[in-house]
Amino acid sequence: MNWTTGQQLQNGDYTIKCELGRGRFGVTYLAKDNKNGGDTVIKTLNYEQLDIQIKTHQITPEEKIKLETRFLDEADKLRRYNHPHIVKVKKTFKEGDRSCIVLEYIPGDTLNRLVKRVLPEKEALRYIQQIGSALSEVHKHKDLHRDVKPDNIMIRAGKYDAVLIDFELVRGFEHPLSRQATEVGFAALELYTPQKDKGAYTDVYALAATLYAVLTGEKPPDVALTGC
User: Fold this and answer.
1) Does 147 participate in catalysis according to the annotation?
2) pLDDT score for 172
3) What pLDDT is recorded for position 228?
4) Which residues form the Protein kinase domain (predicted)?
5) Fewer Cβ neighbours under 10 Å: the N or C end of the chain?
6) Which residues pair with residue 154 across a beta bridge?
7) Which pLDDT score, from 0 to 100, does residue 195 have?
8) Spans of all domains in the chain
9) Which residues of 159-169 are buried (b: 16+ CB within 10 A; e: fewer)?
C-alpha cells in the first residue's frame, strides 16, 4: 500500500508530504520531520513491485528477505561516510513490515535538469571535482556507487554545491530485479557482465561520462555497442 499525503509514520514523528519518485527498487517520499523540524526524505523498498515479482516467479520470497537485509546493511554503510558532497543517512526504522531509510533533504535541481542547457566549463568542472571527491570517500571504504549519472547528482539551491545521491543501496545483488539497473551511456562495460570485476574505475568511467554530458548537452554513447 502506498503512503499518501498527510499520513503519519513512527507515531507522528514524520508526516508524508508527497511521493518524490518510484523505481524498480525503491519508493522515495518527501516528509515533514515533526520531531526535529524541516523536511526529510524517506526511502523504502518498492514492496508492491517485489510482490508482483514473487507472484510471477521472477524472484522467491527468500530473495525478497535477502534484498531487504541488504537494503538496511547498505544504509548502515552509508552512515560511515562524512563528506559534504554525499547525501547523509539519518536513521533507519520499521513502519509495520516496511524497512525505511531517512535521508537528508536537498532542495535544488538534479544536474540532469541543469544540463538541458550546456554548462560553462568552469561550473561543470567544479561539480565533477566535487563528485570525484565524494567518490574517493566511497572508494576509501571499499564501496562502489555503480550508478553515477546527472540524475543522481543534486545541486543545492542557491549554491554551486553538488551532492551524490541515490546509491540504490542494493547494487550488486544478483537476481532479475537488479539486472540492467544502470543507465545506458553512463554504465561501464563491466556492469553489463556480472562475472566481470568491478572497481573504483567503474565509477570513474561514469563520472567521465557525466562530464561529457554536462559539457556537450548530449548523452554519451552506449559502451555496450562501441565495445570500449
Assistant:
1) yes
2) 42
3) 58
4) 14-228
5) C
6) 110, 163
7) 75
8) 8-104, 108-226
9) eebbbbbbbbb
Q: Does the annotation list 43 as a binding residue?
A: yes
C-alpha cell at 111: 544536474
Question: 3-state SS of the chain?
Answer: CCCCCCCEECCCCEEEEEEEEECCCEEEEEEEECCCCCEEEEEEECHHHHHHHHHCCCCCHHHHHHHHHHHHHHHHHHCCCCCCCECCEEEEEEECCEEEEEEECCCEEEHHHHCCCCCCHHHHHHHHHHHHHHHHHHHHCCCCCCCCCHHHEEEECCCCCEEECCCCCCCCCCCHHHCCCCCCCCCCHHHHCCCCCCCHHHHHHHHHHHHHHHHHCCCCCCHHHHCC
For the chain, the average pLDDT equals 88
Q: Which of 76, 143, 147, 197 is catalytic?
A: 147
